[in-house]
Amino acid sequence: xxxYYFKMLRTxxxxxxxxxxxxxxxxxxxxxxxxxIYDIELEQTCITDESLTIREGWEGVETPINENPFFKFDKxxxxxxxxxxxxxxxxxxxxxxxxxxxxxxxxxxxxxNKTQKNEY
Length: 120
Fold this sequence. Notes:
- By secondary structure, this protein is α+β, with helices and mostly antiparallel strands.
- It has a domain at 4-68.
- 46% of the residues lie in helices and 19% in strands.
- The chain contains 5 helices and 3 strands, in the order βααββααα.
- The chain has helices at residues 23-32, 36-44, 71-86, 90-99, 103-112, and strands spanning 4-13, 46-56, 63-64.
- The protein has a 3-stranded antiparallel β-sheet with strand order 1-2-3, with helices on one face.
- The longest helix has 16 residues, at 71-86.
- It is flat.
- 0% of the residues are buried.
- The model has no long low-confidence stretch (mean pLDDT 80).
């Protein structure tokens, strides 16, 4: 048996909101959060880029894996989570669907699937 190693490299971003009158006060409020920022970070981290490689043995040559079958769904789940946190209204969602070119497809799916139960 051979050993294979997978390396996943992710870049992510986290937005932490604080209320303040000016940037200096905002920095102070942010610093008051202390280690709680790590809980916030874990709760709402948004992955912006990901690469996955495989190599045979510890010293083997890394080979990129172009498609991660789970990554697309992970991204979708992150987007859904963000939309829920933003409390997106119907008009904003319609705007988003227009911007990604999915308005007609979504309308068609809603009409054709309106008798199906919500499985999400």
